[in-house]
Amino acid sequence: MKRSILFYPLFAISLVLTGCCKEKPDVAPGGGSQDLAGAFSVSPTKYVYLAPGNLTEDGHGFVAHQWESGGYFCWEPRTNPEGTSAEQGNIPYVEWGDSVGGGWRTLSQSEWHYILFDRRNAASKHATGTVNDVHGLLLLPDQWTLPEGCSFVAGCNGWEANVYRDSVWLRMEEAGAIFLPAAGWKYLYVLDGSGWYVRTDYGENGNYWTSSPHSSIGNESWTFQFFVDKVRTLEDASREGALTMRLARDKK
Questions:
Q1: Which H or E run contains 134?
Q2: Taking the model in full, what pTM does it have?
Q3: Cα(180)–Cα(199) distance, rounded to whole angstroms?
Q4: Which residues pair with 243 in a beta bridge?
Q5: What CA dihedral angle connects 131, 102, 185 and 75, to 10 degrees?
Q6: pLDDT, tens digit, for every residue of 188-222?
Q7: What are the sequence ranges of the domains in the chain?
């Protein structure tokens, strides 16, 4: 039988930003005293709350636990290829937050970049780790106090650098910690005229869509991607690629 792979996204442009940041006090932009519990700054003047889990397979809500992968979604609307099963056909429209309601939306590439690299003490507020045996990336809100009995090692220092289970993770979560599972991605595989999505790289990297289209390549958009040893926020991928989603809601 002749086998052909119709889609294999090319992450052609990558920008890996690393380095140490000088510690600064955790205050609101402009020196304000507003309540920032659980909030993440995405610009010098704007905050968001990240969703409590990835988008579900039907695209209408969030998974019950942050370590669950949820659904895999293409960047733009398209018809499922012939032969694609229903459970693999998670292809909603561009703004996935519209199907959830409540003001949830997809962060732009620049907003993800700000969370990871540009906010105050950014380098000390993300890390690779493992939650209930699932590899992923930990994010801490702008205002953060480590819960009693918990530990946190900042940076991309391996999946075993931060390991949490059950009640210990619950304390981290209640304090505002966010966990993005390294759920890999799905590519479209075609065999004898039938196509279906195949998951790959699960547990090895995380790939999350942003709302930002590529400025010069019409069929590609920007993603936020992480590995065991690095994070990238300027990574382009074909819009047919099926990636996981973590939405956000603006802080009023």
A1: strand 134-139
A2: 0.79
A3: 17
A4: 73
A5: -160
A6: 776 666 666 788 889 999 999 888 876 665 566 78
A7: 3-17+36-250
